[in-house]
Amino acid sequence: MTDTPRTPDQPGTEAQQATTEKQGLAPYDVVLLLGFGGPEGPDEVMPFLRRVTAGRGIPDERLAEVGSHYDHFGGRSPINDQNRALIAALRGELDSRGITTPIVWGNRNSAPFIDDAFRAMHADGHRRVVALTTSAYSSYSSCRQYRENLADAAATVAEEGIELSVDKVAQYAPRPGFAAANLDELVRSLRALDGAPDHEIALLFVTHSIPEAMDDTSGPGDGEGNLYRRQHLALASELAQEAGTLLGRELTGELVFCSRSGPPTVPWLEPDVNDRLRELAAEGVRTAVVAPIGFVSDHMEVVYDLDTEAQQTADELGLRLVRVPTVGTSPVFVSDLADALLERAAEARGEPVPQFEGRRPSVCEPGCCPNLRQARPALCGSD
Length: 383
Ligand SMILES: CC1=C(CCC(=O)O)c2cc3nc(cc4[nH]c(cc5[nH]c(cc1n2)c(C)c5CCC(=O)O)c(CCC(=O)O)c4C)C(CCC(=O)O)=C3C
Ligand SMILES: [Fe+2]
Known about the structure:
Layout: H1 14-23, E1 30-35, H2 42-53, H3 60-71, H4 79-96, E2 103-107, H5 114-123, E3 128-133, H6 140-158, E4 165-168, H7 176-191, E5 201-208, H8 212-216, H9 227-247, E6 253-258, H10 273-282, E7 287-291, H11 300-317, E8 320-323, H12 331-348
Parallel strand pairs: 1-2, 1-3, 3-4, 5-6, 5-7, 7-8
Helix pairs in contact: 2-3, 4-12, 5-6, 7-9, 7-12, 10-11
The structure holds coproporphyrin III and fe (ii) ion.
């Protein structure tokens, strides 16, 4: 914070915000929420898994193993229902700001697919799309792959004479609003702990493991790499510090990983949450507070890999595991997504937008978060 008086031409002032809100999401006429997708019944599990891993060389045993996670939940992932709820919440938030721009949904790996979303938008007369992913961080899997999905879908519908222009909201993990939404959840969970002494509590921030090579190349092509990991570390340390200050506790957090796949010969980010729980129990920790900051809703990685598998590890060790909710449809998160959309629209109109540490450009830099298997067309970037 500075005490410099704000003038109307400074980015992020109230005057600026007022114009921003008045113009709504212009020049965009539709919002596309991009999800990962998931099976909604037992028959959809294997087709879904084959789509996720197409051309990826994931062994069949791993597919069968992941399929069995879905079996625990009747062959249905919660992810699509969570995205329906997110769209409803975002609709409510935009409505409350007088913004009527429709929100359409498209998934990478299950219906409704992105090409169908494009067809539906076009049929309704929409031509300028602003896309928002349900993944907050920068990496090939969580950013560029969605941009490739957009390019594939655009190419498919172009053959039918359908042309749309698509821009994207930058990955939002570095947004102060994303930190605020996660902090709310963390503080609520910590408050609910009984009088456990600080030195018996471990605070574990969890995210999806990715191959080390994918992390090494995440971020701008001419940057330092490891942006996926750095974004998580920055958020984790901010959350641990702010939660500690708010609650007057001495909390140190650390980053751990879940949901590793691929052959054991390929290194992925570590430590695995289960391995770390074992070490911590041996060091005298009694309570593990597990905050899945890498995910925006409680989908399969959370309800299986954490609430089922890591919970079982904790049970075996006699550890109490407290799982912090993901941001889901929390009002702070949804409001920040609405802000991010408004800022993207303002940027498209050539207006200034608020700056903050770690802000990602809305148009990805050349070579950022590359596809290491095969270079492919991707929208919303400068390459
Ligand atoms: C970074 C990241 C996110 C977070 C960002 C984002 O949300 O996009 C994410 C999300 C998700 N990942 C999901 C599911 C799966 N991910 C897999 C495989 C992989 N994920 C990877 C990375 C990520 N994944 C990677 C590097 C692989 C290896 C193969 C590949 O390069 O693709 C596999 C294949 C089987 C396996 O090997 O585990 C499945 C079934 C679901 C749906 C859950 C549900 O159904 O509720 C969600 C939200
Ligand atoms: Fe995944």
